[in-house]
Write a structure and sequence with these properties.
single chain, 266 residues, alpha+beta, Jelly Rolls, Arc Repressor Mutant, subunit A, 2 domains, 6-stranded antiparallel sheet, 3-stranded antiparallel sheet, 44% helix, globular
Length: 266
């Protein structure tokens, strides 16, 4: 069995765990956090308080309320792989006040079970991002987007772009080196952070911080074409470090910034 835990000082409201080929069996216990788990492989049985035993299969996602007695264990003489997110209740209460999650869902005493592939895929992508070296803003954005999918009904469709979108896109393009927070962008749209992410993604095809990264990479191409020193590029563009810049550039251009600049000089 292999296990990995993630926790960050700058994001103290979330802890993540990954377990691969686990045979560990747990006694009934509680967490003071809201727990969200996903099954990657194998089969397990979840028992929550007085509710019927729940069989979980690969691709299932389940929410376990805080302070709720539960135990989730693999089939006898078998192993399973899973992921867990533990979310601080005071932080979730703050999200309720901001409209990012639904208070009724947080107060339910029973587990909530999802078997939709898109939910599982979004969960996996969010958890992978937490273990990554991307910015805290990106991690929080992905986490709020996931919670919105799990804990809020889908917002009504908007056939035309809202009035605030075009001016905001211009600001992001012109100030791409700024460490924009999700809160700051959502305030301009006068939306909760989750609904802001949904509307923004619907009309641009990208999340807000993915769009911001796109702006930074486009700016990098312009600077590289002008011969700007590569050593100063990451700081100039607002990336957290050189490796983050290198990876974001390669994911969008298919070569590293250095390779791109060298080929321009041929």
């Amino acid at each position: 069995m292999t296990q990995r835990f993630w926790h960050a000082q700058n994001l103290p409201f979330v802890e993540s765990r990954r377990a691969c080929e686990s045979r560990a069996c747990y006694k009934p216990h509680t967490h003071h956090t809201l727990s969200i788990g996903a099954v990657d492989a194998g089969r397990s049985l979840l028992k929550v308080a007085d509710y019927p035993l729940m069989a979980l299969h690969p691709g299932d996602v389940v929410i376990i309320p805080a302070h709720c007695v539960h135990a989730c264990n693999p089939d006898e003489d078998a192993s399973w792989s899973y992921q867990m997110l533990y979310l601080d209740c005071s932080w979730l209460e703050m999200l309720v006040k901001k409209g990012d999650v639904d208070e009724d869902v947080l107060q339910t005493p029973k587990p909530v079970h999802f078997s939709q592939p898109q939910i599982y895929q979004q969960y996996c992508a969010t958890n992978a991002l937490l273990f990554d070296t991307v910015s805290d803003h990106q991690k929080e954005e992905a986490l709020i987007a996931l919670l919105g999918e799990l804990l809020l009904p889908a917002p009504p469709p908007q056939p035309s772009p809202p009035d605030w979108l075009a001016p905001l896109l211009v600001q992001l393009q012109n100030r791409s080196d700024t460490a924009w927070s999700l809160e700051e962008m959502a305030q301009q749209a006068r939306l909760s952070r989750y609904h802001f992410i949904r509307v923004f993604r619907t009309h641009t095809g990208l999340t807000p911080h993915a769009y911001l990264l796109d702006c930074r990479v486009n700016q990098a191409r312009t600077l590289l074409q002008k011969g700007f020193p590569l050593s100063e590029m990451a700081y100039q563009l607002g990336f957290s470090d050189q490796s983050h810049f290198q990876r974001a550039f390669r994911e969008r251009v298919s070569v590293t910034p250095g390779e791109y600049q060298r080929q321009l000089r041929r």
